Amino acid sequence: xxxxxxxxxxxxxxxxxxxxxxxxxxxxxxxxxxxxxxxxxxxxxxxxxxxxxxxxxxxxxxxxxxxxxxxxxxxxxxxxxxxxxxxxxxxxxxxxxxxxxxxxxxxxxxxxxxxxxxxxxxxxxxxxxxxxxxxxxxxxxxxxxxxxxxxxxxxxxxxxxxxxxxxxxxxxxxxxxxxxxxxxxxxxxxxxxxxxxxxxxxxxxxxxxxxxxxxxxxxxxxxxxxxxxxxxxxxxxxxxxxxxxxxxxxxxxxxxxxxxxxxxxxxxxxxxxxxxxxxxxxxxxxxxxxxxxxxxxxxxxxxxxxxxxxxxxxxxxxxxxxxxxxxxxxxxxxxxxxxxxxxxxxxxxxxxxxxxxxxxxxxxxxxxxxxxxxxxxxxxxxxxxxxxxxxxxxxxxxxxxxxxxxx
Length: 407
Known about the structure:
TIM Barrel; 8 helices; 7-stranded antiparallel beta sheet; Immunoglobulin-like; 29% strand; 2 domains; 5-stranded antiparallel beta sheet
């Protein structure tokens, strides 16, 4: 992190990754003492992978406003104010830039994305979705999907750059003086490796048998039994469109020939769970084990949740599931959608019976589930309008998903 001459600030930034400087280690935050003027002196920066997302972290010497920053700064203009990350795949020519800021009435949860030409000018510019947070007035954190920024699993080199103008900085009319420009890391580029990861399992603690989650918060779980089936992709599409999470209890016999559907559940950010091999009442341990093996073989994910068909259980069933690392999950909201009472009845039964912590049972397999598909968007909207959030069962029960590399 060092000051640069005003006319060369963006030019230096534009060419920094292309030079032969040894990169630093991955994921560690990069720190440096005060070494530039203005609010955007970069004191600590980082780029790291968080599950399937990339998280950018920036801390500065003084307070700043995102509204004061340009998301697509102009090369060579000393009056520009910006805070940007430049990132380049190792060995590749394409350079990408991600900049903080806001613009008019645009959603603040975006980053300014651009691909850079050899001269450093921006092309293919567009906003990309990002979860942007301000923990303090001297810091900003952004989280985004790497595919939105054209980043695929590989090794990358990166560096942050900032520029400020105003009373804290030398006048732009006197180019012999240094402006408020900073690079981080100062003397070298940083290395980042983006890996292809997926859920591989989940923790299993607390009670071995549950009917619902905590009643203290408006959080509920949507669960779907008897798949995978031809209706599963329709359910996944609704959940994605409505930004809701679900847990899918799969029947082992349904998995062969539909492994792509099981994979799609995980790829959509949803959860897989065990619902016995043949949908038999009070299944044996071997039935549970074979189903978990089929789920893992198809997807790489080992389930930690089990649901007995029909909700029939005894101490032996609970013990067998527990010995396989699974918690037995029943429900407290049942619209009996399997009986096909009509989409309206399914909707009203769910909405009328749901309370904080509810586990709602629906079905994505085992028959015609068109009524469930029709009712689901309205169920989600009605409950969300009442303040409910939709979590996977594992999260509802305060356990966690374990992530690992794709095998």
